[in-house]
Design brief:
Helix content is 24%, strand content 24%. The protein has 460 residues and is an alpha+beta fold. The chain has 2 domains: 10-296, 3-Layer(aba) Sandwich (Rossmann fold); 393-460, Nuclear Transport Factor 2, Chain: A, CATH 3.10.450.720. Helix 4 packs parallel to helix 5 and helix 8 (201-218) packs parallel to helix 9. Bound molecules: S-adenosylmethionine.
């Protein structure tokens, strides 16, 4: 599908022309084509969806779609079976897998995480013993991030809402820090015409300064020998190559080169100081403009002191939740005022350290709260990978009823026996209803509700 040709600002073409063999005409032509649509599957929530579609070459779980469906009308999307993500940025999976190697139990920070594309990818690529701290400084965006991570369903995540400088309190704590930096956005011109209208060299310069500030603020939290992954969706040298050189000059950061397969066509670029990064140009790859680099910290760094604690595991409370079989290596702790969450026992110390130093929105997976005679389940546990295919009282809905549930409307399914029931669609959890015997109350959080009208014919 072709779109109107667009005028690419000359300074961008000037920057790109420094790349060997850059074909300006082909690049401008590609900018006139429609952006690719792609999704990334959740490996812990298997579905039969997208089985026949082409895979993204550098990400096993990535799929290209021939046309863009209305994702809002697919209950599997709301269940976290997949995430709609631009294909180039899925290269983070390859970078993380390479940097991680055989290591397990890592502490990983995604600093600029909303709406959650990189965080859901990291959760899938890291092992269960690793802890992902997903941070977003803007409060409204942090709630979208929280929602998307809840859908994804992993328990080894913490969502925080902090300024990058707050992380300097966690000196030398993280093994990997991902900075998917706010940038001038030229790589997304095909998807976002506003980015084109707002583009200016002044803004590129401002973005470059802000990127340096963010990086300088967060780097103390990276341990010596740890890895910084820096990414933008900008083509500008000021935001890509120059930032790498600045990291080399100011902090002695060294490049980690990522091995590329012969049939991938992103570019490996080398900066003036000999640091490496990877550029994705539409027309050369199936995806949008993207830049990513991995760098090793060489500077000596102190280490934050762990907090002393006694486990607050509320084992006895689990008897109130007979339908939830808590894995042996998990603890149930009061991570919020009234709500209990479960998480890896190995992450309990990290939770208290984070609580002391950061503003947390959520830690682990909320299981709910004890009431007089029952357990009120949290929405999160319905979407948890640990609640999948388990003998939880549940109600299977077809697509129409599932969408009506997601709209918080009445739906046709027969009312089950009294009590709590997990709503499922094709085996995937969507939320909770409480049956009163003659009717059901829908416990989907109000702000999760689909607002879109349902079409007469529901087609995926
Ligand atoms: N990583 C996200 C993903 O894959 O879905 C996209 C991140 S987006 C490119 C950059 C994020 O940085 C935005 O969510 C934005 O709110 C946040 N941001 C803006 N200004 C910031 C600042 N000064 N410090 C840290 N983050 C900032």
């Amino acid at each position: 599908m072709s779109q109107q040709p667009i005028h690419i600002p000359q300074p961008i073409l000037d920057d790109l022309s420094k790349l060997p063999g850059f074909d300006s005409e082909a690049f401008v032509l590609a900018q006139g084509a429609a952006a690719e649509t792609s999704v990334r599957l959740n490996p812990r929530k298997p579905t039969a969806l997208f089985g026949q579609t082409a895979s993204v070459p550098w990400c096993n779980a990535g799929r290209y779609l021939e046309k863009r469906p209305v994702f809002t009308l697919d209950p599997a999307y709301h269940a976290g079976a997949y995430y709609v993500q631009e294909a180039s940025s899925m290269f983070l999976a390859e970078v993380t897998a390479f940097v991680r190697g055989e290591q397990t139990g890592l502490r990983v920070l995604d600093l600029c995480a909303a709406p959650g594309g990189k965080s859901t990818l990291l959760a899938s690529v890291l092992d269960n013993d690793s802890l992902l701290v997903s941070n977003e400084v803007i409060r409204t965006r942090a709630s979208i991030l929280e929602e998307n991570l809840t859908r994804w369903g992993y328990a080894n995540t913490i969502v925080s809402c902090n300024d990058p400088r707050d992380f300097s309190r966690l000196e030398g704590y993280f093994d990997i820090i991902v900075v998917d930096a706010p940038c001038s956005g030229s790589g997304l011109f095909r998807k976002d015409r506003d980015a084109l209208e707002q583009w200016s060299t002044d803004n590129v310069a401002l973005c470059g300064q802000r990127q340096e500030r963010i990086l300088a603020d967060v780097l103390p939290a990276l341990k010596t020998g740890g890895c910084l992954v820096y990414a933008t969706c900008s083509y500008s040298i000021r935001e890509d190559e120059q930032i790498l050189d600045w990291l080399g000059a100011e902090f002695g950061m060294e490049s980690i080169r990522i091995p590329l397969h012969n049939d991938w066509s992103m570019r490996e670029i080398a900066t003036g100081r000999g640091l490496y990064g990877y550029k994705f140009l539409p027309g050369e790859i199936r995806g949008e403009g993207f830049f990513i680099a991995a760098l090793r910290k060489t500077e000596a760094t102190g280490t934050v002191k762990q907090v002393k604690f006694k486990s607050a595991h509320e084992k006895a409370l689990l008897q109130k939740v007979p339908w939830f079989s808590c894995p042996e290596d998990m603890v149930l702790v009061k991570a919020e005022t009234d709500t209990y969450s479960f998480m890896k026992a190995a992450h309990e110390a990290d939770l208290y350290l984070m609580q002391k130093n950061l503003y947390l929105r959520k830690a682990g997976t909320r299981l709910g709260q004890p009431a007089h005679k029952e357990w009120i389940p949290a929405h999160d546990v319905a979407l948890s990978i640990y609640a999948l295919n388990k003998e939880i009282p549940h109600l299977d809905l077809d697509i129409e009823d599932a969408l009506r549930f997601l709209k918080k409307e009445d739906f046709g399914a027969a009312v089950p026996d009294k009590g709590w029931h997990q709503i499922r669609y094709e085996g995937l959890g969507l939320g909770w209803v409480k049956s009163l015997g003659n009717r059901m109350n829908n416990y989907l959080p109000k702000h999760w509700r689909i607002r879109m009208e349902l079409p007469d014919e529901l087609v995926r």
